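A further point concerns the way the authors explain their paired sequence and structure data. Showing the layout once, in full, would remove most of the difficulty. For illustration, here is how one protein appears when written out as sequence plus structure tokens:
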Amino acid sequence: MARVLRWLTWAMGVACVGIGMVHVALGINSVPGEGSAGATIDSRERFYAAIFIGFGLAWVWVARQSPIPATAVRLLAGIFLLGGLGRVLSLAIYGQPQWLQIAEGVVELVVSLLFFWLAGADQKTPARTPDSAHVAGR
């Protein structure tokens, strides 16, 4: 499971950096149906994309740690989950968005939960010896 966690944290980091770079470069043209949203929305899109690049770099940093820190995984997964919940809130208030945003929301919710489940997989625990079990029982 530790190998899966390491691979997923790397994949998450690289994917977020790549997605963020595309959105910085293309602005609103990177979002289906938003090509006519205007300068204000384009500016916001590019700003949030830069933040998403930073989020991806945080995942890469976590993937490079040994062991992978469970607390950092849970924090980053919580941020990702909050984004997915934000999409659910938007769906409840404004209705169904373009299909790609629905798919992204599902990925955000499922992948977040997967990271919560895997978070502690790489934590190194000291091996229990008969002596340590005896001392622990006192």
Remarks:
- The chain is about 75% helix and 0% strand.
- Residues 22 and 30 are 7 Å apart (CA to CA).
- The chain has a mean pLDDT of 89.
- Helices lie at 2-26, 39-63, 70-94, 99-118, 130-136.
